[in-house]
Amino acid sequence: MTRPLALIAAALLGLSGCARPCLMDQTGTMTVNAAADANRTSATAVDVAATTEPALADRLAGLDASTYFATREQLLRDHPATLTVTGWEVAPGQSVGPEPLRFACRTDAVFVFASIHAPGAHRVRLERLKGLRVDIGLDAIEVTR
């Protein structure tokens, strides 16, 4: 009798599109604010990259923003079903958002990458998606909730 109940439960989980508990929020918003002197007064590309593949999450966690932006197109070609990228180009003094973010329940990791000209990783792994704010300064980014 417990076996039929287990089969029904498994079928229902499969129909919901989420066979395991969500690892992080599925939805949220992000606002991007660039200071007047942001990125040494240059426009900044800001990408939110989400993956449903643990190995790709580990790979993204090891990339600095410069390497990420140089290889982004190839990453998207190599992982079309498991990598989602949303991006903006933000000029100094400009604000964008709040922009909606929505990811699959099975998302393993979400990162923000910013094309800052100064040395540094300029990568932040997000733990939550609710009410995010990305501030671009002279030579760094800061993500707050």
Describe what is shown at a glance.
Helix content is 28%, strand content 35%. The chain has 145 residues and is α+β, with helices and mostly antiparallel strands. β7 and β8 form a beta hairpin.
Number of strands: 8
Number of domains: 1
At the first level of CATH, the class is Mainly Beta
* CATH architecture descriptor: Sandwich
Low-confidence segments: 1-18
Proportion in helices: 25-40%
Helix run count:
4
Distance between the termini: 48 Å
Structural class: alpha+beta
**% residues in beta strands:** 35-45%
Query: Widest sheet: strand order?
Result: 4-1-7-8
* Shape summary: globular
- Main beta sheet strand tally, sense and closure: 4 strands, mixed
Topology as H/E string? Answer: HEHEHHEEEEEE
Q: What is the mean pLDDT?
A: 84
The CATH superfamily name is Type VI secretion system, lipoprotein SciN
CATH topology: Immunoglobulin-like
Give the radius of gyration: 18 Å
